[in-house]
Specification:
There is one protein chain. The chain is α/β, with parallel strands linked by helices. The chain has a domain of about 110 residues: Rossmann fold (3-Layer(aba) Sandwich), CATH 3.40.50. A four-stranded parallel sheet has the order 2-1-3-4, sandwiched between helices. The longest helix is centred in the C-terminal third of the chain and has 19 residues. It is globular, with a radius of gyration of 18 Å.
Length: about 200
Amino acid sequence: MRAQEDEEFRRIVQQADLVTPDGIGVVWSARLLGLPVYERVPGVELMAKLCERAAQKGWRVFLLGAKPGVAEMAARNLQARYPTLQIVGMHHGYFSPDEEPQIIAQIKAAQPDILFVAFGIPKQEKWIAKHADELQVPLCIGVGGSFDVYAGIVQRAPEWVQRLCLEWLYRTLKDPKRRLPRLLAIPKLLWLVAKTALRGKASN
């Protein structure tokens, strides 16, 4: 829904090499429209799979984002889980525009194979799109609040809640001030899906 209102973000999504359905609303909408989207791919789980593969393949990883100290805690916990994982650098996401060139130089010097960026949507996607050519990192991916999860600051919903596709409700109850405004996008999404589905039936 943000991409409907933000032209820059929409262009980034359309041009991305990979777009994953993090929210269950996207999956349900895709099913209603007959699109080949079969299940959620939460950013935190995708990051885990990529770190697992990186540990196996010897790929180098850089963590950029979250509050000061969080990336370091996440790095320690990830390396405990994947002992051969090479985390070659980390930096928090609370830096000024004047500090940005230094951070970009730090990432380039570390030569990571994967750069995880945890600024939140759409800031992380816009930052990656702006600096991708300069960074020359093979894989740059936005992972939202995943660092907080791996640092142990935020707990994911119990597995039975995830299986019921109610993780969004769990997260809203845990953080209503930040999460409730996001729920306003749901009726907008449903209306957009309904209009698209009706147009499809009319054309047939």
